[in-house]
Amino acid sequence: MSRNYQIAPSILSADFAKLGDEVRAVIAAGADLIHFDVMDNHYVPNLTIGPMVCTAIKPHVGNTPIDVHLMVKPVDAVAAEFAKAGASIISFHPEASEHIDRTIGLIREAGCKAGLVFNPATPLSYLDYTIDKLDLILLMSVNPGFGGQKFIDGVLPKIAEVRERIDAAEQRTGRKILLEVDGGIKADNIAKVAAAGADTFVAGSAIYGAPSYANAISSMRAALARI
Questions:
Q1: Residue 67 annotated among the catalytic residues of the structure
Q2: Which residues pair with 39 in a beta bridge?
Q3: How far, in Å, CA of 39 to CA of 153, rounded?
Q4: Which stretches does DSSP call E strand in 10-142?
Q5: Active site residue 182
Q6: Alpha carbon 164 to its chain's center
Q7: What is the pLDDT of residue 103?
Q8: Helix H or strand E segment including 54
């Protein structure tokens, strides 16, 4: 099945001293989305960036969507702030919300697309009640909290299962749902992740750690084209 693949460089791996330049550079190199990792040192063991940084990069992204991944608890107030700051997509972890439906509703009412994020050990049963309200499902292929980790191969069957669920939901409702994978994605494994069913790929160090962002992204696209 032919899919429209999207590459979402994670600014977690960018040079924060020149973040506007870094964002413009990956967009010029062919990025489809800008992935924005938010960690609170409570839900995950790290502290990164907040809505103020999203507001700051918004003028630099043009029409490229900002894809915000909230690794925070509680989530509702932070999601609202990111909607105001210019996010296009806001995804969160079901474990971080007391009322998952309400959080999805708040995100969509604020004019953003809503996503649900699954850690490697998080059960997919949360989708039984939410999939028809989601625009994106993000599967973590590492345990969240730090960039630069190795891809966990055990997530591949989970990607395939989510693809089946998405295909069934899309047939039922006609709504498009992105299947995004984040963690350890690089040119030499992106094809197997796509073959399992993913269509959107978050890559941090594999792009921002490369000498040429354009070459890194085109290597990924070349691997995807061979599927």
A1: no
A2: 71
A3: 24
A4: 34-39, 66-71, 89-92, 113-118, 136-140
A5: yes
A6: 19
A7: 98
A8: helix 51-57
Which residue of the set 67, 135, 182, 199 is catalytic? Answer: 182
The amino acid occupying position 107 is I
Of 37, 67, 135, 199, which residue is the catalytic one?
37
Question: Has residue 55 been placed in a domain?
Answer: yes
Q: Hey, what are 87's tokens?
A: 């996010």
Q: What's the domain range around 130? A: 6-225
1 in a domain, yes or no? Answer: no
Question: How do the pLDDT tens digits run along the chain, 227 residues long?
Answer: 568 999 999 999 999 999 999 999 999 999 999 999 999 999 998 999 999 999 999 999 999 999 999 999 999 999 999 999 999 999 999 999 999 999 999 999 999 999 999 999 999 999 999 999 999 999 999 987 667 788 999 999 999 999 999 999 999 999 999 999 999 999 999 999 999 999 999 999 999 999 999 999 999 999 999 98
- pTM higher than 0.85, yes or no? yes
- Classify residue 71 as exposed, middle or buried by CB count within 10 Å of its CB (0-12, 13-18, 19+): buried
CA distance 38 to 36: 6
Tokens of 171: 């047939």
What is the pairing mode between strands 89-92 and 113-118? parallel
Domain assignment of residue 196, yes or no: yes
Residue the block writes with tokens 């069913």: 197
Question: Which residue reads 């460089």 in tokens?
Answer: 9
Domain membership flag for residue 28 = yes
Going 181 to 185 to 186 to 192, the CA torsion angle's sign is negative
**CATH number, domain containing residue 57:** 3.20.20.70
- Number of folded domains that form the chain: 1
Token duo for residue 204? 């941090």
